[in-house]
Amino acid sequence: MKELPEEKRLLAILRKTAPFGIAFSGGADSTMLAFFAVKHLGPDAVRLLHAHTPFCPGEERVLAENVARKLGVELHVVSLNLLDDAAVRANDRMRCYHCKKILMGAALDALRGMGISTLCDGANTDDLSDWRPGMKAADELGVRHPFLEAGLGKRRIRLLARRLGIENWMLPASACMASRIPCGTPLEKAVLDRARDAEKILRERFGFHGVRVRCLENGETARVEVRPVDLNRLFRREAEVTALLTDLGFRKVEFDPSGYRRGAMNRA
């Protein structure tokens, strides 16, 4: 298979950077970066670092462990209780900055203990179109963005992942659970867990992927967002979904007629 120009650019960047660590969630972007690096540079050039926090969506750690196992690379788990930090817990517009500063700082500390000083993430050109204070924190810590440096956006990353035969190349993006809470509403573990449980029900019982359950009115109201293509199916199951989410502790359940939109809470 002929090498694409994007692959050549990315490989040149990674060769100059190795050895390095990857901030690894197990999602499509970090998986593509890990597969590409291991294929071209070998497993010894890469370290995978996974942050396990109260903000992790669904079965993210299990997914990360499974991908690392397939790659034959050890997964280094960094466990952090981000809710211990008052600035993160306050959930203002700079929450992602404070959160990323802690996460990436801890990952870098772990890497330095392995004799490696460079950490890479899966940020790409699509991230430049949304409010991303976390990228500012990563930049301040010297985190590298290979996809961004190579000029790659989400669509091209998925294309390259498909060419590599990566199974989760079309895996929907899964933002941290704190994004389910409106800016300015303090974060509480119980509300985050309720949103996570609600999304698990919608995925596993109804087959809705890329679903979001926003927790409004101090966690009393659930606003369900699914992909626009799934809206009709959601509305046909409205009564059943409402009953199940009410059982979790939500007093009210709403259904967004516009469907899921990336960065919707940033524009709220």
Description of the molecule:
There is one protein chain. With 268 residues, this protein is α/β, with parallel strands linked by helices. It is built from twelve helices and seven strands. A hairpin with a 4-residue loop joins strand 5 and strand 6.
Strand order of the largest sheet: 3-2-1-4
Q: Supply the number of structural domains.
A: 2
Q: Class by helix and strand content?
A: alpha/beta
CATH architecture assignment of the largest domain: 3-Layer(aba) Sandwich
Q: Which terms would index this structure?
A:
268 residues; alpha/beta; Rossmann fold; GMP Synthetase, Chain A, domain 3; 4-stranded parallel beta sheet; 12 helices; 12% strand; globular
Condensed summary:
The chain is an alpha/beta fold. 45% of the residues lie in helices and 12% in strands.
Give me the secondary-structure topology:
Blueprint lengths: L4 H13 L2 E4 L4 H14 L4 E7 L7 H12 L3 E5 L6 H5 L4 H18 L6 E2 L12 H8 L5 H4 L4 H10 L25 H16 L7 E5 L4 E5 L5 H6 L1 H10 L4 E4 L8 H4 L1
Parallel strand pairs: 1-2, 1-4, 2-3, 6-7
Antiparallel strand pairs: 5-6
